[in-house]
Specification:
The chain has one helix at residues 22-25, and strands spanning 3-5, 8-10, 13-15, 30-34, 37-38, 41-50, 58-67, 71-74, 78-85, 89-97, 105-114, 121-123, 127-131, 143-148, 156-160, 169-172, 176-184, 189-198, 206-210, 220-223, 227-235, 238-247, 255-259, 268-271, 276-279. The chain is mainly beta. It has one helix and 25 strands. A hairpin with a 4-residue loop joins strand 24 and strand 25. The radius of gyration is 16 Å and the shape is globular. Strands 3, 4, 5, 6 and 7 form a five-stranded antiparallel sheet that branches. A four-stranded antiparallel sheet has the order 8-9-10-11, with no helix packed on it.
Length: 285
């Protein structure tokens, strides 16, 4: 997702079709990115790829608001973009129809303005979860809200992460939402924690395990219904290249999967049941 950290700037938020049986995913395999930061300003552009193929992105339309640091989640037919900054913090929630190429429409609003939530978001086929990445007067960092993706309307309270933090990598099985790593702004600490929640319930996240190596933020999550990937990240000023994997139905620490093509953080991710893609980001340029 898009991020601004100190003088470092980078790319756009992305969404993936939720994991699960083909009858729920619809077999479409489209990945959509939107918003982000291209110096000196935020942007509203949306791009499209077909995950099963190779090739450059094509134009999809535009967000309703120029934003960076956008949270995203999706069902098999609809994608959600929420919050961000341009440069002030925002509470907007937008939706797009994935099979179209028509940009976004208004969905509702979060309970408060915020930012730094990109990758702090996950979903099954009906409910999307969004983690508050920034500290705001009336909402604690690490608070989770949910939306019902097939409808429109404002978000509702869900619970909290086990440890407050921003820029978590997120992924989901049809039942569990998982949030990995991040930075705790209260103590200015980079974390290795992996948490999980049951998406169709409400409450505080439960400890799952830890990522390999050092704590970091702005890693990116991807996955299918059984396996989650945690890629890249930043422990300022050091960017990371490694990819961890976890088995979503169990608990435990991350294990080595391989590496990105370069040290990168703040990317967008999009995945089908067989392929994960990572777009844009910072290296740190």
């Amino acid at each position: 997702g898009p991020q601004v950290c100190g003088i470092t700037t980078f790319g756009s938020s992305g969404m993936q079709l939720p994991s699960g049986p083909t009858e729920f995913r619809g077999g479409r395999g489209r990945g959509i990115t939107g918003g982000g930061f291209v110096s000196p300003s935020s942007q509203s552009v949306m791009d499209l790829i077909e995950i099963a193929t190779k090739g450059d992105a094509t134009d999809f339309g535009d967000l309703t608001v120029i934003l960076r640091n956008v949270a995203t989640c999706a069902s098999s037919t609809r994608g959600i973009f929420a919050s961000g900054q341009s440069p002030s913090n925002n509470d907007v929630i937008m939706y797009t129809t994935i099979s179209s190429s028509g940009g976004c429409n208004d969905f509702g609003n979060l309970s408060s303005v915020m930012t730094n939530s990109n990758e702090g978001c996950t979903s099954d086929n009906t409910r999307g979860l969004i983690v508050f990445g920034s500290n705001v007067p009336d909402v604690r960092q690490g608070s989770i809200e949910f939306v019902t993706i097939p409808t429109t309307g404002d978000s509702n309270g869900f619970g909290e992460l086990s440890v407050p933090r921003r820029h978590t990598a997120s992924m989901a099985s049809p039942i569990r939402g998982v949030f990995a790593s991040g930075k705790n702004d209260y103590d200015s600490v980079y974390l290795k924690n992996i948490d999980f929640v049951i998406i169709q319930t409400q409450g505080t996240a439960v400890a799952f395990g830890e990522i390999t190596g050092n704590g970091r933020e702005q890693s990116i999550g991807a996955g299918n219904k059984t396996r989650g990937l945690i890629a890249g990240g930043l422990e300022s000023p050091t960017p990371y290249q490694n990819i961890d994997f976890i088995t979503l139905a169990t608990e435990g620490n991350g294990q080595d999967f391989g590496d990105l093509s370069a040290n990168r953080f703040g990317m967008a991710s999009m995945s089908s049941s067989t392929r994960a893609t990572f777009a844009a980001g910072s290296t740190p340029s």
